[in-house]
Amino acid sequence: MTNIDLNRYRSVLEAKQAELVRLLRNRDGIAIERCPDALDEVQYATERELAIRNLDRESSLLRNVRAAFCRIEDGSFGVCLHCEEDISPKRLAAVPSTAFCIVCQEFADRSQCDGAETLDELLIAAA
Ligand SMILES: [Zn+2]
Fold first, then answer.
1. Mind giving me the DSSP string for 69-98?
2. Closest CA to 47 of 30, 60, 35
């Protein structure tokens, strides 16, 4: 991987990180709404659940992006964390924050567990 490649991935990741931080800061969707109408209550609960699911997804994406920055710094970017083979440029172009080659991704999905980082810690670190 050349420095030109790395710089390109770095700017893609920076844009992604900025976008995720902006999305995560916009947490109005989770505010607990009080409404006297039972049907509206259901509607609000559904929307709230959706907002929480999106936050979960976005915060785990942000974690991946931050981990990718660490790999750029330590020179391991573009190398699969599991089998240590190069990740294909095609896959990196599609998912620059990925830490695994396509073969290992399924394994990673199965064994992935959430770390100790909370959303707030992520937001502080990303600011
Ligand atoms: Zn692999």
1. HHHHHHT-TTB-TTT-PBPPHHHHHH-TT-
2. 30
Residues having C-beta closer than 5 Å to ion ligand 1: 80, 82-83, 101, 104
CA 93–ligand 1 middle distance (angstroms): 16
Please tell me the distance between residue 67's alpha carbon and the centre of ligand 1 in angstroms.
16
- Are 70 and 125 in contact by the 8 Å Cβ rule? The answer is no
Per-residue confidence in pLDDT tens, the chain, 127 aa: 889 999 999 999 999 999 999 988 877 655 555 656 777 888 888 888 998 898 899 999 999 999 999 999 999 999 999 899 999 999 999 999 999 999 998 776 776 554 434 555 555 555 5
**Structure-token match 């992935």, residue found:** 112
What is the Cα–Cα distance from 104 to 124, expressed in whole angstroms? 31
Residues listed for the chain: 127
CA angle 98, 99, 104 (to 5 degrees): 100
